[in-house]
Amino acid sequence: MLLFTKDQSKFTRESRKNRILERRPERRAGALSALVIFLEPFVACRNVLDNLSKNRDWRVTLKNRKFKKVGVLKGGPSSEREISLKSGAAVAKGLKAAGYEVVEVDVQGRSLELPEPVEAVFIALHGEFGEDGQIQKLLEARGIPYTGSNPAASLASFDKRLSKDIFVKVGIPTAAYEVLGPNDTLSLPYPVVIKPPCQGSTIGIFKVNGPGEWEAAFRSSLRYDGEVLAEAFIPGRELTVGIVGHTAFPVIEILAPDGWYDFTAKYGKGQSRHLCPAPLDPALAAKARQIALDTFEALGCRGLGRVDFRLTDAGELYVLELNNIPGFTETSLLPEAAQAAGIGFAELCATIMEMARVG
Predict the structure, then answer these.
(1) Catalytic option among 75, 306, 342, 354
(2) Catalytic residue among 59, 106, 190, 267
């Protein structure tokens, strides 16, 4: 029994085509031309789906699974605990729907206690002790298979100082940046974006438009990690590309209030909108997915991730960061992109679960 479910969206190519063909004959040619332009992103999405359906890694069945009893690690000690609890609850629900026996583990501190034996774990811990390689080291020591990247790759993607150094070394396009301590002076021109190097969920991030805004934002961001990462602000559109296995999903565009995707815009109900697939030229969308995969590989990641971009009016893509354990509620960006490619939530959770490994 396959869990794979194709997208049942009402916006199918055939239904739109039929509605247009019902119009007067003299309008058909122009309408069909408009249809082709409108559907370009959806055709690209269908191509992604076709590739997935041919890839056996995605053909998760009840008979060929490696694991039956699994754990879901959620919560954790980081500033992203509440978000992690929501992600973990959603993952557990998805895995149960896929037929697994699931043990939910609320991680309270910086140690790991499993209430009962499990064959593998799905890590849904965001931020410190989840994305920085610490929990992965503990699981490696116990020989328990886990989802996502290994300790070294987790740290490289979590610590933005390490990520940016790697981007520059291998030629991943990224904004100009500098790392500042408490007594350092900014040398980049305004506007800039400052953020703690080791936080996620847009925690401690500020856009600073001029010197009058600098001190308060700098001190606020500095209190998390003792240093801040300052980057040149890239005007343009906010894009993100989810990755599972070796497949990049359709590009999502994020429309945030005033073009600034901060914590309120990210998690406030109705604060931002997502366009999936993003209304991009197919060649540009393909380029974004390829850069996302290059970023994923450069950092040594595996299993899953999400790469965030800025896109300028000139069509230039800049990588902001890679999230190695992205949000995983049913309305989060990675599951949304998977759904656009025809991958249901339970199928997605099961597929990632089956990629769990040690080493």
Answers:
(1) 306
(2) 267
**In the prediction, which pLDDT does 199 show?**
84
Of the candidates 32, 15, 9, 130, the residue with the CA atom closest to the CA atom of residue 72: 130
Residue of 323, 324, 342, 354 marked active site: 323
- 321 — phi, psi (to 5°)? -170, 170
> Could you give the percent of the chain with pLDDT greater than 70?
78
CA separation for the pair 342, 255 (Å, rounded): 23
Residue 40 is predicted with a pLDDT of: 46
Q: What is the pLDDT of residues 178-193, one digit of tens each?
A: 999 999 999 999 999 9
Catalytic member of 75, 200, 305, 327: 327
Q: Tell me how far apart the alpha carbons of residues 337 and 46 are, in angstroms, rounded to a whole number.
A: 12
**Global model pTM greater than 0.90:** no
Among the listed residues 104, 128, 321, 347, the single catalytic one is 321
Tell me the pLDDT tens digit for each residue of 239-285. Answer: 999 999 999 999 999 998 776 565 555 555 566 789 999 999 999 99
Domains of the chain are 177-232 (3.30.1490.20)
Task: Output the CA angle 254-258-259, nearest 5 degrees.
Answer: 35
Q: Among residues 308, 336, 347, 354, which one is catalytic?
A: 308
- What does the alpha-carbon distance between residue 263 and residue 103 come to, in Å, rounded to a whole number? 30
Nearest to 355, CA basis, from 166, 147, 202, 63: 147
CA 5 to chain centre: 21
Judge whether 258 counts as a catalytic residue. no
Active site residue 177: no
Sheet of 228-232, strands arranged across: 177-180, 228-232, 192-195, 206-208
The DSSP symbol for 357 reads: B
For the question of residue 306 being annotated catalytic, the response is: yes
49-64 residue pLDDT tens? 445 444 444 445 556 7
Residue 2 vs residue 184, higher pLDDT = 184
Amino acid identity at 323: N
Percentage of residues in the chain having pLDDT higher than 90: 72
Query: What distance in Å separates the CA atoms of residue 158 and residue 162, rounded to the nearest whole number?
Result: 8
Instruction: Spot the catalytic one: 46, 76, 78, 80.
Output: 80
Is 80 noted as a catalytic residue in this protein? yes
